[in-house]
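Slide 14.
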Amino acid sequence: MAQIDEAQQRYYIEDAPTLSDAQYDALMRELQQIEEANPELVSADSPTQRVGAGQGSTFAAVTHAERMMSLDNVFSEEELDAWARRVERDAKGPVRYLCELKIDGLAINLTYERGRLVRAATRGDGVTGEDVTANVKGIKRIPHRLTGKPIPELVEVRGEIFFDLAGFADV
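Slide 15: predicted structure.
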């Protein structure tokens, strides 16, 4: 667990990863298997019980209205099949899928009040993120105002912010 905690600190907080994604995923998978076999070992501070990372020191803290979760990885066709069966069971019938290539970006929560963008926050640890509103308002494709009618009083949009190669070159 200490090795995973250190890897998360280096990756999420210090922006200086020490493990490849594959190495990190393998360690997390091993810890998950140990905890599944020994539920009495699961603790609230286990890396399997957390999402993302805590807040850094640069931006103000933002508490999410609803917890901001993360998606689990699957590593085999069997795990994918099991996941699809759970989805269809929970949906009480067949489900159509739209699949896209994974894009690794920054998980973000955009909050609109009366159609105006009032806050952009990172996922952080899922409960508390960082206020990056000023930075996000500089992204041309993020609307500052929602259009159309009717617009609900409050709208939250969650997704990933990323740069394509051309956008990265502009930075």
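Speaker note: The domain at 1-50 is CATH 1.10.287.610 (Helix Hairpins).
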